[in-house]
Design a protein that fits this description.
Helix content is 61%, strand content 8%. The chain has 160 residues and is mainly alpha-helical. The protein has a three-stranded antiparallel beta sheet with strand order 1-3-2. A hairpin with a 7-residue loop joins strand 2 and strand 3. Helix 1 packs across helix 5. The longest helix is centred in the first third of the chain and has 24 residues. It is globular and about 60 Å long. 18% of the residues are buried.
């Protein structure tokens, strides 16, 4: 067996794959009737996978400053996809969570993304698929991204 690929080769492969995945995400967002940007969708996904969060914690998960997160939250609150409430633990803290509408958007876009990704995976040689699962699972874990659960699992976080 040959030596493992150099970090630059892995980085290039991940960048190329990420372009494809971003394109799939953009097409999936464009196919729904809601006007949601890719960064706003990411915010919805973070709330879906991590549950209710404080503003600062949400901004940290998104990798943006709190004022940027606040602008996105304001738009999504106005659109009825995010709920903003006073924390039951501290009246000074605001907790953000998905509304039923926000959850529906995440489910619809994720279902479209899943279907398109499944078509791409089906074109791959079967012998490469397990290696891809292993590599992407390790990559997501290294980046701190929680695993995706399918609706068939019945364990979607925040499901209504």
């Amino acid at each position: 067996m040959g030596s493992p690929p150099a970090a630059d080769a892995v980085t290039d492969a991940v960048l190329t794959a990420s372009r494809l995945l971003v394109a799939v995400s953009v097409r999936s967002l464009a196919a729904i009737d809601e006007a949601v940007t890719l960064p706003q969708f990411r915010l919805l996904v973070v709330l879906d996978t991590r549950g209710p969060l404080k503003h600062a914690t949400l901004a940290e998960h998104l990798g943006v400053n709190p004022s940027t997160a606040n602008r996105m939250v304001n738009r999504l609150v106005t659109a009825g996809m995010v709920d903003r409430r006073t924390s039951p633990d501290s009246r000074r803290e605001i907790v953000l969570s998905l509304t039923a509408s926000g959850t529906r958007v995440v489910r619809r876009v994720t279902a479209r993304r899943r279907a398109e990704i499944a078509k791409i995976v089906a074109k791959m040689p079967a012998t490469h698929r397990q290696g891809l699962v292993d590599a992407l699972t390790a990559f997501a874990a290294a980046g701190g991204e929680p695993p995706v659960h399918t609706q068939l699992d019945g364990i979607w976080p925040g499901a209504q």
